[in-house]
Design goal:
The complex is a heterodimer. By secondary structure, chain A is of the alpha/beta class. Chain A has 17 helices and 14 strands. The mean pLDDT of chain A is 97. By secondary structure, chain B is an alpha/beta fold. Helices cover 43% and strands 12% of the residues of chain B. Chain B is built from 22 helices and 14 strands. Chain B has helices spanning 13-21, 26-35, 66-75, 89-94, 124-129, 132-146, 157-162, 166-177, 195-209, 235-246, 260-265, 277-291, 303-317, 320-348, 361-371, 386-390, 402-405, 425-433, 460-470, 479-487, 506-522, 532-535, and strands at residues 36-38, 81-86, 118-119, 150-155, 181-185, 223-229, 249-255, 271-274, 295-297, 352-356, 375-380, 453-455, 474-477, 492-494. In chain B, helix 3 crosses helix 9, helix 6 runs parallel beside helix 8 and helix 13 (303-317) runs antiparallel to helix 14 (320-348). The two termini of chain B are 23 Å apart. Classes of the chains: A alpha/beta, B alpha/beta. At the A-B interface, strand 1, helix 1, helix 2, strand 3 and helix 3 of A face helix 3, helix 4, strand 3, helix 5 and helix 6 of B. Strand 1 of chain A pairs antiparallel with strand 3 (118-119) of chain B, so a sheet runs across the interface. The complex binds iron/sulfur cluster (SF4) (2 copies).
Chain lengths: 457, 546
């Protein structure tokens, strides 16, 4: 038993988090910044945070993650980090020549109270920001919210780079939220099929699933350009996918430039994808092409083919709020029973949404925001499940309790491929179902006794 | 096989150095110039390198922080201590199971907290009002849920800033709980210039709060401690297997596959053997001063190095029975290693490597490459000090700068009751006269070829340039560097965490490493970088069917 110390008896803990289901803000900000073309993320704090965030993103995406750091030592912690950041901006533009530096704070620079805007202005005045280049910044204190909050804060900083010229650009803004590069690609494909023109931000497709060609480009093709971001203020409207990841940015655009917005769920599974396509259609005033209805029909077909295996199977889920909400709905739509749902990210609305989605299930769901994986494990011990869906750290629970696991969410450190295969949209739904059925039937094949073992179980 | 590789132009090392520095602003270039050294023969002394100095802000460094060195590297591999990170959630999360420290917790009733991540998950109100109460509560909750024998507390950046007194909380809780040793580490990330500071802080506190706690006699003959070995990918398991086979008792490994009791009993050993000089040499000194245990440098990376280290240990004890046993073990283990070396050698001979890791690994692994006939073109450390490059004799001349002053040095004296010299001064002298060296480490520079480049705190920009210019057959560094190097078409081997491989220590480890490097430098994959139409884009005049 690897988690041999986890007792079945659940005792309230108010100070100790065990096996967290979240991490800190800056890593989300770093990921979002990588979705800007020609952008070098910069971590304003001591270099360890940056090293950790880069390592974790690298392990997950299996791609180079370049990011610079202000490399605070004790002095900077006492006197403030302004000198470090000014020096860093200068060095970065000289050595790496990015188009944009996207600075985020860490708990250290936040606690000191460094003011990013003021330092940015000073850098500008001192001529440290070359003509035509940009420095944007987001405050991402790691003692508030989670990595999801940090992602959202950086996306909001991107939205605030928008300007309004008064000339409509005929586009809609799509804010995809924290999904895989392949998902961003899939969202673009669907939007293009519907026939809308769009600005997608952030956009890590091509950046974090780039080719191997014998050449290294610190700034690969891909990512939303600063030019596009600036014109986001002239768009017809904004579709924000995910309340936690994307809504703040959309609302900021609305209040700054009167770009109307709608906040949708992330398009995981049938119904959330339906709503996304429908929203695209109505916002852009176009009709949905037959190919999309065809893809949808394929997903429904697969759902019906697999239904016998899914019906009333119990699932434990852990991950980030936006993903969990959509996934819970998807599982309910195929008659599976999400019985335990945990996110580490705080937010009361989360529990409410999950309860609404599971309201007419034949059981009461255990749901917790600001929970941890230790609690999830304890819940599983008390009410066993047929399937776990969550990040790589779930493998310890899965092994100890002998439960099939579908790796999904962030971070996935021990598998390769998730950066290439989308799980959003109808096609993504197919992949999710295939994965779920795969692990359930592998388990059945393994467990069946010899006399009940059949060619087709 | 079609490969991209251009014939290597003969580069002069001076030109390479210049090329690396060309793009920097003058101040940065001046600083980096002192950290890039061309290995040249000098009269009676090794050339000097600048190391353990601050990273330039904005430069994409390979380094991590003090907390990572303390919690991640040193305490990470210890299974039965509950390690609570006091701070916001991130630091604890990232150091959760990511270093591939293996542990054997199969003994009946053994505790193993390594798969767990404990954090106080500080929120803004803790930052504003202070986190001491929450920390005390977290310790209580950990105690109530797990009843561990020890709880360790690690401070992250904001904790130092807001001034939480973690040592006072630890002391209070130790007294309150009674049967649980609670101690704390002031290892805030901003202290020091790299993770090395964290190693220091960790080792000091372990020495202060745990070493010497258990006076019970340990069974076994030829008792040693293994310092600076972290059981990445099972290295420690392989070394223990060999030691066992030789009849040598390993009392404590600091800190691979370790347990609380091992640290507590470390003063019972008769010899300290130091693997990673950087991370722990000062502990060896303290153990000698306080308890009278001498220390020697060993290296179990590479089959020859392993044999040499075993012989050194045997020579120290000077017992014929042990000396014979060690020779028998070497004779038994070597043929399998040599067979694989001979098998891969035709495929690896003459190939080249670059190594940029740690504070000893970039040195140790050159032995393995050497055994395969491979040359190291360039190497350097992520967080070494000058002694790791130039040898221990430079320690007295090291400048103590503001950053080093931050790191506590503990003063040790001979323990009144437990100090006992393991050998008489005559015996020590006799060994030294026979060429045996105590308290000694040569450093990396003397072992590297003339004209090679030794670079401290290499950064991403320089790494890319070096690889473009010298096109090594394999590059060794860490996860952050892995994919940018591979995009250039050069295989990258992680030497902090070994990717998924290992063990690479000892005899069996050498075999694993030979096979792994053979796979990497001879993989077909690196030949597919360009499509055929990209390799010869010219169209011929006519379209010809064959
Ligand atoms: S929690 Fe704070 S100190 Fe820790 S890694 Fe995150 S930003 Fe850095
Ligand atoms: S070998 Fe390197 S990574 Fe390992 S402990 Fe020593 S300095 Fe650290």
């Amino acid at each position: 038993m690897l988690l041999r110390h986890t007792p079945d008896t659940i005792s309230e803990r108010s100070a100790l988090v065990v096996n967290p289901a979240k991490t800190c803000q800056p890593i989300g900000a770093m990921y979002a910044a990588l979705g800007i073309h020609g952008c070098l993320p910069h971590s304003h704090g001591s270099q360890g945070c940056c090293a950790y965030h880069r390592s974790t993103l690298t392990r997950h995406y299996k791609e180079p993650i370049s990011a610079a750091t202000s490399s605070f030592t004790e002095g900077a912690s006492v006197f403030g980090g302004q000198a470090n950041l000014l020096q860093a901006i200068d060095n970065i533009f000289t050595v790496y020549e990015p188009e944009v530096i996207a600075v985020h704070t860490t708990c250290l620079s936040e606690t000191i109270g460094d003011d990013l805007n003021q330092i940015r202005d000073k850098a500008e005045k001192e001529g440290k920001i070359p003509e035509g280049k940009h420095v944007i910044g987001a405050s991402t204190p790691s003692y508030v919210g989670s990595h999801v909050t940090g992602f959202s804060n950086m996306v909001k900083a991107m939205a605030l780079a928008a300007e309004k010229t008064g000339r409509k650009n005929g586009k809609i803004n799509i804010i995809p939220g924290w999904v895989e590069p392949a998902d961003m690609e899939e969202i673009k494909r669907l939007a293009a099929m519907v026939g809308v023109e769009f600005i997608l931000f952030p956009d890590t497709s091509g950046v974090l699933n780039g080719p191997l060609s014998g050449e290294y480009h610190m700034f690969p093709e891909g990512g939303v350009t600063m030019k596009e971001l600036r014109s986001a203020g002239d768009s017809m409207g904004t579709l924000a996918l995910g309340e936690w990841c994307s809504a703040d940015a959309a609302r900021a655009l609305d209040s700054a430039h009167k770009v109307p917005c709608r906040v949708l769920d992330m398009p995981f599974g049938l119904q959330a994808t339906d709503r996304f396509i429908d929203a695209l259609r109505t916002v852009a005033g176009v009709s949905v092409p037959e190919e999309i209805a065809h893809e949808r029909g394929q997903l429904v077909d697969m759902m019906s083919d697999m239904h016998q295996y899914f019906y009333h199977k119990k699932v434990a889920l852990v991950g980030d709020p936006d993903q969990l909400i959509a996934m819970t709905e998807f599982l309910v739509s195929i008659d599976m029973c999400p019985v335990h749902v945990v996110t580490g990210t705080p937010g009361k609305r989360f529990e409410k949404r999950i309860r609404e989605i599971t309201a007419d299930m034949p059981f009461e769901v255990n749901v917790r925001a600001a929970g941890d994986m230790f609690l999830l494990h304890q819940w599983i011990k008390n009410e066993p499940v047929d399937l776990i869906m969550g990040n790589t750290y779930c493998k310890y629970i899965a092994r100890d309790e002998d439960i099939p696991l579908v790796r999904w969410g962030f971070p996935i450190l021990d598998r390769v491929g998730h950066q290439y295969f989308p799980t959003v949209g109808y096609k993504g739904g197919l992949r999710l179902l295939e994965k779920i059925l795969g692990v359930l039937l592998d388990r059945k094949d393994r467990d069946a006794s010899e006399e009940s073992f059949e060619l087709v179980l | 096989m079609a490969t991209l590789k251009k014939k290597m132009v003969q580069w002069d090392p001076t030109d390479i150095k210049e090329e690396l520095l060309r793009k920097y602003p003058p101040k940065v270039a001046r600083k980096r110039a002192k950290q890039i050294l061309i290995n040249e023969a000098q009269e009676n002394e090794t050339p000097e390198i600048s190391a353990n100095v601050r990273t330039v802000p904005g430069i994409i460094t390979m380094r991590g922080c003090t907390y990572a060195g303390c919690k991640g590297v040193i305490l990470g591999p210890t299974r039965d201590i509950v390690n609570i990170t006091h701070g916001p959630i991130g630091c604890g999360f990232y150091s959760w199971l990511t270093r591939r420290n293996q542990t054997d917790a199969s003994a009946e009733g053994a505790d193993n907290y390594m798969p767990y991540c404990f954090s106080t998950d500080m929120h803004d109100e803790d930052i504003i009002f202070g986190g001491e109460k929450k920390l005390a509560k977290a310790i209580q909750e950990a105690y109530d849920t797990f009843h561990p024998k020890a709880i360790a507390i690690f401070a992250t950046c904001p904790v130092g800033l807001i001034g939480d007194d973690i040592h006072a909380v630890a002391k209070k809780m130790r007294e309150k709980l009674g049967d649980c040793n609670v101690f704390a580490f002031s290892c805030e990330g901003y202290k020091g210039v790299s993770q090395s500071a964290g190693h220091h802080i960790a080792n000091n506190q372990i020495f202060r709060h745990v070493v010497g706690e258990n006076d019970a006699e340990k069974p076994g003959e030829y008792k040693i401690n293994l310092l600076g070995e972290y059981n990445i990918g099972g290295d420690g398991f392989e070394i223990d297997r060999i030691l066992n086979k030789c009849g040598i008792t390993n009392i404590a490994t600091f800190s691979g596959n370790s347990s609380y009791d091992q640290f507590a009993s470390a003063h019972k050993a008769d010899l300290n053997t130091v693997m990673c000089h950087r991370s722990i040499n000062y502990v060896a000194d303290m153990l000698e001063t306080k308890y009278g245990i001498p220390w020697i440098k060993v290296n179990f990376i590479g089959a020859e190095a392993t044999a040499k280290s075993l012989r050194k240990i045997a020579q120290y004890f000077g017992d014929k029975k042990l000396i014979d046993r060690v020779e028998a073990v070497i004779a038994e283990e070597m043929p399998a290693v040599q067979a694989v070396a001979a098998e891969v050698r035709p495929r690896t001979e003459g190939k080249t490597a670059m190594l940029f890791v740690g504070g000893s690994r970039a040195h140790h692994y050159q032995e393995l490459f050497g055994e395969m006939g491979m040359k190291t073109l360039s190497a350097g450390y992520e967080f070494a000090h000058r002694d790791d490059y130039e040898g221990r004799e430079v320690i007295p001349n090291l400048k103590v700068d503001a950053d080093s002053r931050n790191i506590e040095e503990i003063e040790v004296e001979a323990d009144e009751t437990r100090y006992s010299p393991r050998k008489s001064s005559e015996e020590m002298q006799k060994l030294e006269d026979a060429g045996f060296r105590f308290k000694h480490y040569d450093g990396m520079i003397p072992d590297m070829d003339k004209g090679t480049l030794i670079i401290d705190d290499l950064n991403q920009y320089e790494a890319e340039k070096l690889v473009e210019i010298l096109k090594p057959d394999v590059f060794c560094a860490g996860i952050k560097e892995k994919f940018s190097i591979q995009k250039l078409g050069v295989p990258m081997k992680q030497l902090h965490s070994y990717d998924s491989g290992g063990p690479y220590a000892g005899f069996r480890g050498a075999v694993n490493f030979y096979r792994e490097i053979d796979r990497l430098v001879n993989s077909r994959i690196w030949g597919y970088m360009k499509a055929p139409w990209q390799e010869t884009p010219e169209l011929s005049a006519t379209y010809v069917w064959e």
